[in-house]
Amino acid sequence: MLSPDGTAPVTASADPTALPSSRSAPLPASSGSGSGSGCSSGPDAGSGSGWLDEPSFAPLSHSPGPASPDGRWSIGELAEHANVTVKTVRYYSDSGLLPEAGRSSGGHRRYGAEALERLRLIRSLRTLDLPVTEVERVLDREDALEDVIAGQLRQLGSQLAALRWREAALQLLHDCTPEERADRLRLIGAVSSPPSTDAMARFWRLVLPPRLPARLVSAIIEAAVPQPPDDPSPTQVLAFARLHALTEAARPDLCRPGPTRPYEGLHPALLYDGLAEAYALASAELAAGRPPRPGQALDCFVAAHAAAHESKDSPSFRRRLTPTLLQAVDPLMARYWNLAATVTPQETTMGSSHTWLLAALTGHPEPRDNIEAPTGS
């Protein structure tokens, strides 16, 4: 066969069963059930139906014909009974998926009757677009099929998520004004495909105290870094792209102006351990729609800061803590949490929990003296 420009012969693809990019030009059919040296010119040519230009895998309407006196089939006979091309049988044989039972006196391939069912199984697996290596796993180990299918489902899910992300990004560019398009294209173009959260994780490693235990760093990053949605809206794509740009541009001297921040005290690990509990309690308050108020969440919040400063919760400690925390409010962090809330609007963030607790502290500077807050709002 000549190349499209008619100047040079084209070698057939390595796998005649691989998904073709152009089915509109089928190649000549196999010569039928001839000797083992027969060859077709294309992938299962001539069948003209179904996936990969071949019939479905319903049982044949006739039983396989008699084999030769030695009980074996030629490559052409096996191809005819399986309703595939000789080229397909040869490919699977050369790949080691379809072992030969022997060779004829003339050197032609011979196959036993069991090769027919094996070939049908191979073709069934290939219609699912399983790679040849995965097909080989299933043939070698019967219990591998479940693992192979699960792996393919994960891979397909990732591909579909990437396509949905791309669709939302294109829709974002389609819907914006010409004046906005260049800036949004720059933002989206800086995000990898599939979207990565690596820049955000690096940002948090810059923000957090340098000697914070690794377990706390990992837990904070997991809680603070929003994952890209599987089915994002254009608004979520834009928020994620802006969040990526914000964290990618962060510098250590801007993230941490000094060796430690005043509100972190002498023991940052004690602080962040206590804050994790306080944020979880505040998150429940937010989910219930309750306004900032005194209660267990606020007490836990103040106690964490007191422990970090080797102090105790008291009116005087709260009076000192409140302006310190208000002065530490960072516009960069506020923007981070606003964007994160847009990426994952269904979830409360550490930022929203902190804001709720700070408002509760500002409005209720006195300790509760162990009096439980009412359960209602």
Low-confidence blocks of residues: 1-13, 19-63, 370-377
Rg (C-alpha, Å): 33 Å
Strand order of the largest sheet: 1-3-2
**How far apart are the termini?**
79 Å
Report the sheet-strand fraction. Answer: under 5%
Query: What is the count of β-strands?
Result: 3
Mean pLDDT: 79
* Biggest sheet record: 3 strands, antiparallel
Portion of residues within helices: 40-55%
Overall outline = elongated
Count of helix runs: 15
Secondary-structure element string: EHHEEHHHHHHHHHHHHH
Structural category is mainly alpha
Structural commentary:
It is a single chain. With 377 residues, the chain is mainly α. The chain has helices at residues 75-82, 86-94, 114-127, 132-140, 144-175, 178-189, 198-207, 214-224, 234-248, 252-255, 268-287, 296-308, 315-327, 331-343, 350-363, and strands at residues 73-74, 102-103, 109-111. A three-stranded antiparallel sheet has the order 1-3-2. Helix 5 crosses helix 9. The longest helix has 32 residues, at 144-175. The radius of gyration is 33 Å and the shape is elongated. Residues 1-13, 19-63 and 370-377 have low confidence and may be disordered.
